[in-house]
Specification:
The chain has 151 residues and is an alpha+beta fold. The chain folds into two domains: 1-46, no CATH class; 47-140, 2-Layer Sandwich (GMP Synthetase, Chain A, domain 3), CATH 3.30.300. It has helices at residues 3-6, 48-71, 117-127, 131-138; strands spanning 10-13, 21-26, 29-34, 77-88, 101-112. The strands form two sheets. Strands 1-2-3 form a three-stranded antiparallel β-sheet, with no helix packed on it. The longest helix is centred in the middle third of the chain and has 24 residues, at 48-71. It is globular and about 60 Å long. It comes from Pontibacter cellulosilyticus.
Length: 151
């Protein structure tokens, strides 16, 4: 593991022999994003948006379980199915550009366990408070630092 990975960096590489495949290292985990079938309209594997949805979904179900455990609620299982779409700005009441498209994520939440309606509603509210969702909704600045290549 490199120093950057040990310091919490995620490393992503792609080379000219297969430029549509990105190899990812996060801690001891290794993942692949394969966009090689995009030109043929084939999806051979997870794409970058699937990883964003996965992060949001994982954060959501973990947040729900942490909250339910702290409250002593009988949440047995939390499941969230997510979809990313680009919707027309006309679907948005507060949009400035009517011709623009907005990124939208729809979360379908299922809660399993002997929960009251009040507990279910509270968990639905809590599902919007996971740190990843807060980050996505607030937006973020992305800073790029060009480094010299290693020899």
């Amino acid at each position: 593991m490199s120093v950057l990975e040990a310091e919490g960096f995620v490393r992503v590489t792609a080379d000219s022999s297969n430029p549509m495949v990105a190899n990812i290292t996060a801690g001891s985990d290794k993942m692949v994003i394969d966009e090689s079938g995009v030109a043929q309209n084939v999806k051979p594997g997870a794409d970058p948006y699937d990883f964003i949805l996965s992060a949001l979904g994982a954060c959501t179900v973990i947040t729900l379980h942490m909250y339910a455990q702290r409250k002593g609620w009988p949440l047995e299982k939390a499941e969230v199915r997510l979809r990313h779409e680009r919707v027309h700005a006309t679907d948005c009441e507060q949009c400035e550009d009517e011709n623009a498209k907005l990124n939208q994520v729809t979360k379908h939440l299922r809660l399993y366990g002997d929960l009251t309606e009040e507990q279910r509603k509270r968990l639905e509210d809590i599902s919007a408070r996971c740190p990843v969702q807060k980050t996505l909704v607030a937006g973020m600045k992305v800073k790029t630092v060009l480094e010299k290549e290693e020899v």
